[in-house]
Specification:
The complex is a heterodimer. Chain A has eleven helices and ten strands. Chain A is of the alpha/beta class. The longest helix of chain A has 18 residues. The N and C termini of chain A lie far apart (51 Å). Chain B is 36% helix and 24% strand.
Chain lengths: 285, 292
C-alpha cells in the first residue's frame, strides 16, 4: 500500500516550439505512514506535483501507481482516488460555505452517499482529531478565529478518511501557537492513525521539527530527497535555490567555525541544546 | 496646540476603541467584539516599529486606524498631526501613511510593473514627468528597477510584494504600514522584503510599522508593541520584549529561535546574558563561556 510516482513530466505548451516543463522526470516512492516535507521556492513545481498525486492534473508522460494500480489506466476511478488522497489547499478556510461547521465537515462524506449516521460519525471524528472545540460545532464558520477556521477546513478533508493527507502551507498566516497546535495535531494523525502526511511549507523550522523526510523541488525537478539532517547539511546549495536552513543549522555551523567542537547536524532547538550541553559538559570534566 | 506638542510623532493614538458588532439575519445584535480596547501609543518619525500579537489580538484592526481605513469609535488618531476623523484630511492622511497587505496578488492592478507603481501618484494628480521620476526612484529603492517593463504576474511573491511597496513609496509617504507582508512568501522572498523595508527605514528615513508572526523579522526594530485582547500589553526594545520568553508563550507568541536556544541553554545551567537576539551574540557568548 503506497504511492509510486514514476518518471512523470508535466509540460505546458507541449506542441509549440517552446514547451515549458513544469515537472521534469519526477520519481518518488511514498510509503505508508511517512511524514514528508516538500520545500521549494515559489514556482518550483510543488503545488503542481501535489495536484498530480490526487489526480487533479494528469502527467503529460509517465505514470503514478497508487496501491499497485496505475491511476492513468482506463476505467480507474479517479473520484475514489481523490477520497483516498486528501488535498488541503492554501487558505482552505476560503472554501468554507455551510451554515454550521458541522454541516460543512459533513459535506464531503455526504457526497460519498454514505448513511446519515456514518456521515455524522465521520464529521464528529474528524473535528475531534483536529482538536476543534466541541462547543463550536454548530456555530457559523464565519464567526471563528483564523486558527479555528483552518482546523474546520482540514476536518472537512479528514472526514473523507484519506490514506494520504496533503497540506499546502497549512500554517500560513497563523500565530506561532496556532501553528504549533495544528502541526502537533497533524503529527498525531501520522503517529496514531498511521496516515501518510505530505506537508508543503515555506518554514524550514517547521519542516525540521516535524518531518521524517524532505523532498526539495527546484525548477520542476527533485533537487534533494533525504532526511532533514542530510538535506539541511546542504544549506549553501539550498540558499542558491531561494531556500534556507533552519536558524539552528546556522548557529551550529557558526559555533563550529568559532572553535567549539559541536556536530553541525542538529536542526531543532532541542537537538542543538543537547549537543551544546554535551560539548560543554565534556570540556568541564 | 496639539499639533505643536506632538510634532515629532508621525502617529499618535489616544484611548482608541473599535468594536465589531455581529448581527443575526434579522439584524439583531448577537455579540460585540472589542477589537481595539483603549489603545494609546505614539510612533516617532523615522522609527522602525513592530507589532506582535496572536490571531484576533487586534493588531490589524489597530493598524487600519493608522491610515484612516478605519475610524475609532472612541478616542482619536493623529497621523502626521492630522486627526483621522476629519474627512477633508483623508487624502492627506493616506498620502502620509501607506499600507501594504498580506497577499501581493490582491494589490497589483496594472499589466506592467512601472504602470502599477505609477498608479498612486497619477491618481494624486502628480505631473507626468514627476511620476516617472518617482517610479524610477521607488523601484530602485526596493531593488526592482530592472523589472520595470515586466509583467507583474511573471514575478515571484517576494518581487510582487516589493512592487507593492514601491507603489506605496511613489506616493512619498512618511510612514509605511505592512500587515504581515511576508506570510505568503518563501524564505528568499521574506528576506528580500525585510531587507528592502529596512533599507527604506535606514536610508530614506521612512517610518516603518511592521505587523508579523515571524519573530526573526522583529529583531532589528527600534520598538516592539505586543497586543492581546485589543490592548497593548507589552512594549519595549526587541531585547526587553524577547527576554520575557514565558510571558510571550502565554500570549500564543514565540521568540526568535536564537533567543529560544539561549533560553533553553540557560535553563540547563549555562551562564549566558539575558535576551540574546542574534546568531553572532549567541556565538560570542558561548565562545566566551567555552574559553575560546
Amino acid at each position: 500500500m503506497s504511492m509510486i510516482v514514476d518518471h512523470i513530466n508535466y509540460i505546458y505548451a507541449r506542441d509549440t516550439e517552446n514547451p515549458v516543463y513544469a515537472l521534469k522526470d519526477i520519481c518518488l516512492t511514498i510509503p505508508d505512514g511517512q511524514f514528508i516535507g516538500v520545500i521549494g521556492h515559489t514556482g518550483s513545481g510543488k503545488s503542481t506535483l501535489m495536484q498530480h498525486l490526487n489526480g487533479l492534473l494528469k502527467a503529460s508522460t509517465g505514470s503514478i501507481y497508487f496501491n499497485g494500480e496505475d491511476i492513468y489506466d482506463k476505467g480507474y476511478d479517479l473520484k475514489k482516488l481523490r477520497t483516498r488522497v486528501g488535498l488541503v489547499f492554501q487558505y482552505p478556510e476560503h472554501q468554507l460555505f455551510a451554515e454550521t461547521v458541522f454541516a460543512d465537515v459533513c459535506y464531503g462524506p455526504k457526497n460519498l452517499k454514505l448513511e446519515k449516521q456514518e456521515v455524522e460519525l465521520r464529521a464528529y471524528d474528524a473535528l475531534r482529531k483536529v482538536g476543534f472545540p466541541e462547543e463550536l460545532f454548530f456555530t457559523s464558520p464565519f464567526d471563528l478565529s483564523g486558527g479555528q477556521k483552518r482546523r474546520a477546513a482540514i476536518a472537512g478533508v479528514l472526514a473523507m478518511r484519506p490514506e494520504i493527507l496533503i497540506l499546502d502551507e497549512p500554517t500560513a498566516g497563523l500565530d506561532p501557537k496556532g501553528r504549533d497546535e495544528i502541526l502537533d495535531q497533524i503529527k498525531k494523525l501520522q503517529t496514531k492513525e498511521n496516515m501518510t502526511i505530505i506537508l508543503v511549507s515555506h518554514s524550514m523550522e517547521d519542516v525540521a521539527e516535524y518531518v521524517d523526510r524532505i523532498v526539495v523541488m527546484n525548477d520542476g525537478e527533485v533537487f534533494l530527497d533525504n532526511t532533514p539532517k542530510e538535506v539541511f547539511g546542504h544549506y549553501k546549495e539550498l540558499e542558491k535555490i531561494g531556500l534556507a536552513a533552519p536558524q539552528v543549522t546556522y548557529i551550529m555551523n557558526g559555533l563550529y567555525e568559532r572553535g567549539i567542537p559541536v556536530s553541525t547536524e542538529a536542526t531543532t532547538i532541542s537537538e542543538a541544546a543537547d549537543e551544546i550541553m554535551r560539548v560543554f559538559n565534556k570540556s568541564n570534566n | 496646540m496639539r499639533r505643536v506638542i506632538f510634532k515629532m510623532d508621525i502617529i499618535r493614538t489616544k484611548d482608541v476603541v473599535y468594536e465589531y458588532i455581529r448581527r443575526d439575519d434579522e439584524g439583531e445584535v448577537v455579540g460585540i467584539t472589542t477589537a481595539v480596547d483603549h489603545v494609546s501609543l505614539s510612533v516617532q518619525q523615522g522609527d522602525f516599529i513592530a507589532i506582535l500579537g496572536h490571531n484576533g489580538s487586534g493588531k490589524s484592526t489597530l493598524a487600519k486606524h493608522f491610515n484612516a481605513i478605519l475610524l475609532p469609535e472612541e478616542g482619536s488618531v493623529w497621523v502626521d498631526g492630522k486627526l483621522t476623523s476629519e474627512e477633508d484630511k483623508l487624502w492627506d492622511i493616506r498620502q502620509s501613511a501607506g499600507m501594504v497587505f498580506q497577499n501581493p496578488d490582491n494589490q497589483i492592478i496594472a499589466q506592467v510593473v512601472e504602470e502599477d507603481v505609477g498608479f498612486g501618484p497619477e491618481n494624486m494628480g502628480v505631473p507626468t514627468e514627476e511620476i516617472w521620476r518617482r517610479v524610477e526612484k521607488s523601484l530602485k529603492d526596493v531593488g526592482m528597477y530592472e523589472y520595470r517593463k515586466a509583467s507583474p504576474n511573471k514575478l515571484s511573491g517576494g518581487q510582487k510584494q516589493r512592487i507593492s511597496i514601491a507603489g506605496v513609496l511613489a506616493m512619498k509617504p512618511k510612514c509605511i504600514i505592512l500587515d504581515e507582508p511576508t506570510a505568503m512568501l518563501d524564505p528568499k522572498g521574506r528576506r528580500e522584503v525585510i531587507e528592502a523595508v529596512t533599507e527604506l527605514n535606514k536610508k530614506e528615513g521612512v517610518t516603518v510599522i511592521l505587523i508579523t508572526h515571524y519573530m526573526e523579522e522583529v529583531v532589528g526594530a527600534d520598538k516592539v508593541f505586543v497586543m492581546d485582547g485589543g490592548k497593548v500589553v507589552m512594549q519595549g526594545t526587541p531585547r526587553q520584549v524577547f527576554s520575557l520568553v514565558e510571558d510571550l508563550k502565554a500570549l500564543r507568541l514565540d521568540v526568535p529561535q536564537v533567543t529560544l536556544l539561549a533560553w533553553e541553554l540557560k535553563k540547563r545551567g549555562l551562564e549566558l546574558p539575558e535576551g540574546i537576539l542574534t546568531k553572532e551574540e549567541l556565538t560570542e557568548s558561548l565562545a566566551e563561556a567555552y574559553g575560546r
